[in-house]
């Protein structure tokens, strides 16, 4: 059971998706590390993640990575459509028994397992981002030392790195190569 008390927007949900995909992609990740990311993104209640939940969430994260890996909007939309066809339920509205405003969900029910929830909530958020932005919703860090995903943000030149840290590391490496 989840206790997310506020209804996140598509952007905040997508931010949570990116953070979860990143923590779940680390080979050494633990249920505690995943729970910490969930708390950072609005989860307020006790989080009971079993090893089976973790495995299912990792599978979902792997599937979502394909959307981030898409080089252009059409490819991202097609990758998302494949997931929507195969791996999510129908669009439905829920108010979590009167505890939240009505909002859309793509999982089969409010107590769906964590893996199903992650994939469904992420697909919904990424679909809205493509709809709103008409551009790929994110990307994969261009640093060879990093596999993090990131979200497309704002206007301006497309970003290539997940973080300032990775951008700096690559700039320093390129500078060394030139010398
Ligand atoms: Zn990076």
UniProtKB/TrEMBL annotation:
Signal peptide span: none
InterPro entries linked: ABATE, ABATE_dom_sf, Znf_CGNR
Domain of life from the UniProt record: Bacteria
Pfam families: ABATE (PF07336), zf-CGNR (PF11706)
Domain Zinc finger CGNR: 140-179
Name listed for the protein in its UniProt record: CGNR zinc finger domain-containing protein
Species of origin: Streptomyces beijiangensis
């Amino acid at each position: 059971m989840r206790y997310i008390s506020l209804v996140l927007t598509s952007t905040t949900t997508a931010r949570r998706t990116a953070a979860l995909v990143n923590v779940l992609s680390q080979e050494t990740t633990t249920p505690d590390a995943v729970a910490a990311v969930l708390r950072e993104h609005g989860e307020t209640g006790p989080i009971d993640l079993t090893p089976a939940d973790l495995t299912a969430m990792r599978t979902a994260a792997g599937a979502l990575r394909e959307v981030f890996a898409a080089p252009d909007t059409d490819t991202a939309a097609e990758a998302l459509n494949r997931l929507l066809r195969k791996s999510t339920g129908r669009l439905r509205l829920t108010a979590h028994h009167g505890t939240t405003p009505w909002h859309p969900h793509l999982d089969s029910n409010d107590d769906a397992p964590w893996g199903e929830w992650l994939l469904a909530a992420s697909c919904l958020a990424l679909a809205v981002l493509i709809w709103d932005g008409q551009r790929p919703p994110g990307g994969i860090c261009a640093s060879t030392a990093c596999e993090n995903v990131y979200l497309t943000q704002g206007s301006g030149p497309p970003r290539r790195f997940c973080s300032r840290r990775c951008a700096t590391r690559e700039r320093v490496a390129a500078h060394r190569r030139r010398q």
